[in-house]
Queue: 2 jobs
Job 1
Amino acid sequence: MSGGTTRSVGLSLVIPVYNERDNLPVLHREITDVLKSFGNGYEILFVDDGSTDGSDTVLRGLRDADPRVRVVTFARNAGQSAAMDAGFRSARGDVVVTLDADLQNDPTDIPRLLEALKGTDAVVGVRRTREDNLVRRVSSRVANYVRNRLSDERITDTGCSLKAFRRAALQRLVLYDGLHRFLPTLLKMEGFRVMEVPVGHRPRRHGESKYGIGNRLLPSFMDLLAVRWMKRRKLRYEVKDDV
Ligand code: UDP
Ligand code: MG
């Protein structure tokens, strides 16, 4: 806990961190630049998902230097969905923006997301250019196509972590491991409105991607089947009378 005071903030940035040591100071600086006009009206909530590369020390340094930084630390690696869930629960802002810690998302896109959120409940980024290798670009396209087909959905790029949400909407969700990729669908199932906006994308600057074909393709396909099932089995009824 830093200081023990609860500040009121309008905006919480939720950033899952797993071994991103060298990216964190740059990311913090970029966010601070972009959100200058917000003064102290925002918080940066890093969720350290059991990093073992010294990210914890760097995060502690950022927190000591900037009262807007908060850090939730996991005892051990629990996965990106768990990290995001913990961030959503700890967030204090009415609006939550998610982004990756590896500098692939560009914080200069955040104001546009916030502007778009004024007319809806969630805003999902669509990466116009992908700064990933060919295998990843192709597999992401195929994944989005299959996902949309099988779950009767129309989200262009759910793999883009840069998203903005009304926190009240997120509070309605129960997440399971892997479901961070399906947040737009889960929100729509609850009756919320979801919009898309184009955003930038950059190469990973330091560290390594935590996913490859091996640990993403099959698990996320199984998750897709679960979401498809949930969507089909969602309770739909209308009470005509209750006396
Ligand atoms: N991440 C995490 N826990 C994990 C795996 C990833 O918190 O078990 C974080 C990671 O540090 C990054 C984000 O989730 O901030 C996305 O991961 P990554 O950049 O490796 O995914 P990619 O962009 O390659 O799809
Ligand atoms: Mg990345």
Note: The pocket of uridine-5'-diphosphate (ligand 1) is lined by residues 16-18, 20, 49, 77, 79-80, 83, 100-102, 104, 209-211 (CB under 6 Å).
Job 2
Amino acid sequence: MSFDYDLFVIGGGSGGVRAARVAAAGGAKVALAEEDRYGGTCVIRGCVPKKLMVFASEYSGMVEDAQAYGWDIQPGAFDWDAFKGKLEAELDRLEGIYRNLLKNSGVESFDARATLVDPHTVELSDGSRKSAKHILIATGGRPIVPEFPGSDLAITSNDVFHLEKLPESILIVGGGYIACEFAGIMNGLGVKTTQYYRGAQILRGFDDEARGLVSEEMCQSGIDLHLGTNVLEMTREGDKIRVKATNGDEALFDQVMYATGRAPNADDLGLEDLGIERGRKGEILVDKYSQTGVPSVYAIGDVTDRVNLTPVAIREGMAFVETVFNGNPTSPDHDLIPTAIFTQPEMGTVGLSEEEAAQQEPIEVYATSFKPMQQAFAGRAQRVLMKLIVSQASRKVLGCHIVAPGAGEMIQLAGIAVKMGATKEDFDRTVAVHPTMSEELVTMKTPVRTA
Ligand code: NDP
């Protein structure tokens, strides 16, 4: 049986574009359909614009620090329009790069929505049909807002980059990556920032001590964080939003941003008719090779809700190509993934939290919290944390947690050692780089506790 293509990819985000390019580079005939902008969540409405906003927001504190270091410099106002213009131009440039990457690797792309018709056929939004030996679904995810009175007044991370003007006040709801990162961004840009989180401490699932310090520092920097608090209802009042909270508070905000999780984009793709199974959150269920129950259909990235991170989607895409086009069955490795949360201060983490490790086996905990030189000199009270979780039996470092400016950069490197199975003694054998914050990772001699 002959097909139009060897591979048809649905979704032009990080995972889909990488899989399409690598398959095409190996000689496969590949097409890709994207209904929105090329680059997907990460490039267009996620990691990239978010990090640029983090950079923008960090300059506010830098002026004061520079003054403390002797600079005659005065803080000025932040110009949202100027920043937004540059941000939009940068995203246009990056989208162009993504389109070119596809074109230059010989992938045919369609600016259209694609749905599945049968195990080897997709239908595009213009009504045309394309057949392919393999179909890869890489449609990502989207933010979700729970239903409650006035929930339609909330914006999400999709909207925050397009605001006409920077609000004077904002309420951010949620305690995950996105909520905490945007609380730091808005606060840094000079917006009066309030955050509600329904649980006892933000960043659930991460090391308790690390998230405790992030939370403390966020409050220190001026974020009005309310734990154990949720929204009951919201009403429009002039150009503001009145919010009634579960703790009895009532307040007015210019904007309310919900960051209460994301859902896989797997609706209306035609999956049900083909008998492709979905999980509790609506994610596409796949095996360890990213294959669905229909052998010619695979899925990667956030739509499968495994580990929802760009570099993981890219790895899943590469493993798919290796498996299907290179005859070398390869499953993506989801173990010991280093990751960073761009809160202020940043958190970098790899491996097990102290709480998870203690459940698993006897451990030693090495940790130190101190005022870093650069900020201490400028008179800031800010503290950082360096922490290692060590197996008593194997001496392996099971987890490394860093809360500090630049923690994302540090954890990438510490992640290599942890992934290689380094022991505490391997860390100790490494000479310190002085004077740095991360040298503490190789100079901690005595455990602060065992568990
Ligand atoms: P998360 O799932 O991480 O967090 C959702 C938050 O919203 C949790 O604090 C949750 O509370 C809370 N929540 C859920 N439902 C409700 C509700 N009905 N009412 C009130 N609060 C609610 O989602 P995010 O949207 O923050 O991030 C999605 C994913 O995106 C992350 O898991 C991550 O993989 C990825 N991401 C990664 C980044 C990075 O690597 N730096 C940056 C941004 C996103 P509870 O804890 O009680 O469940």
Note: The radius of gyration is 24 Å.
